[in-house]
Design goal:
Layout lengths: L2 H21 L45 H8 L4 E5 L2 E7 L3 E9 L6 E10 L7 H15 L1
């Protein structure tokens, strides 16, 4: 046998052997990998934060304009001081920091007095705005009721 024939014979034998190996059924052996278990750090439950009540919005002092006696009393309570000086009815509301004077004038028909003017003033050294005085009086009335 010549060396070339030997090589061809060897190659053919290997090819047939390889074909014979693949034609037989092979059952693959699979080793199961361990299941992945992520570690989770225990997170303590968080208590929900209570919602703050919405901040109350108070009207501006201009809300007083045109109100009658009953409406003013409903808004601020009974005045601390009353004076009738025709044609005006003067009411005064006081707090520790301010005084609010309300001037109600008689209407053309009947005994209906309505607010036509008001003014706030400080009762001490510090100045206070008209709105702060009015809101302070509203809050004081709410707390009394």
């Amino acid at each position: 046998m010549t060396p070339a024939r030997g090589i061809i014979f060897l190659a053919a034998t290997l090819a047939f052997t390889a074909c014979a190996e693949t034609s037989r059924s092979v059952t693959p052996s699979v080793t199961a990998a361990p299941a992945f278990k992520p570690t989770v750090a225990a997170i303590p439950p968080v208590a929900p934060t209570p919602k703050a009540p919405p901040k109350k919005v108070y009207p501006s002092p201009s809300r007083l304009s045109g109100l009658d006696r009953d409406q003013v009393t409903g808004l601020l309570g009974a005045p601390g001081f009353k004076r009738l000086d025709e044609p005006a009815l003067i009411w005064q509301y006081r707090s520790a920091i301010c005084a609010l004077d309300i001037f109600l004038y008689r209407g053309e028909i009947g005994d209906i007095y309505t607010v036509r003017h008001f003014e706030a003033r400080s009762r001490g050294i510090a100045t206070v705005s008209e709105k702060d005085c009015f809101v302070g009086l509203l809050i004081a009335h709410e707390q009394r009721s």
